[in-house]
């Protein structure tokens, strides 16, 4: 539980850092005139680059990447939690089998009590 809380706080902090860095860095990367008039530089689409579409596509791209990473981490947390709790259900299944054997007359009461203590241990 503590590990899960720390992981959630760390993930939230990482997402905040990525969001802020994309907001602060994107205008610097999108400025025209920094190309030195080569590689189509400022003449691409009349000096506007891809216009607003470039920024929208960049936000969508990074949003999908972040959502994918968060989904992967949550899936990993859920699968490790389910594996760690899978041992809990086996004791109940064993107890049901033991009760059926006792009810069917296969084992005596002493054996039933001894096995019950072993299962519940």
Which descriptors would you attach to this protein?
121 residues; mainly alpha
What are the SSEs and their pairings?
Layout: H1 2-30, H2 52-103, H3 109-120
Helix pairs in contact: 1-2, 2-3
- In DSSP terms (H or I, runs of 4 or more residues), the helix count works out at 3
How can the largest sheet be summarized? none
Number of strands: 0
Query: In sequence order, what are the helices and strands, one letter per element?
Result: HHH
Q: What is the averaged pLDDT score?
A: 75
Distance between the termini: 23 Å
In short:
77% of the residues lie in helices and 0% in strands. It has helices spanning 2-30, 52-103, 109-120. Helix 2 (52-103) runs antiparallel to helix 3 (109-120).
Characterize the structure shown.
There is one protein chain. The mean pLDDT is 75. The radius of gyration is 30 Å and the shape is rod-shaped. It is built from three helices and no strands. The protein has one domain (2-88). The protein has 121 residues and is an all-alpha fold. The longest helix is centred in the middle third of the chain and has 52 residues, at 52-103. α2 (52-103) packs antiparallel against α3 (109-120). The chain starts with a helix and ends with a helix.
């Amino acid at each position: 539980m503590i590990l899960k809380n720390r992981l959630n706080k760390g993930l939230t902090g990482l997402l905040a850092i990525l969001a802020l860095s994309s907001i602060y860095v994107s205008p610097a990367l999108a400025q025209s005139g920094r190309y030195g008039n080569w590689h189509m530089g400022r003449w691409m689409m009349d000096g506007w680059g891809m216009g607003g579409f470039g920024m929208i596509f960049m936000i969508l791209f990074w949003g999908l990447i972040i959502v994918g990473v968060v989904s992967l981490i949550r899936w990993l947390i859920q699968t490790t939690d389910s594996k760690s709790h899978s041992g809990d259900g086996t004791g109940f299944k064993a107890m049901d089998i033991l009760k059926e054997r006792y009810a069917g007359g296969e084992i005596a009461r002493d054996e039933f009590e001894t096995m019950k203590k072993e299962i519940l241990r």
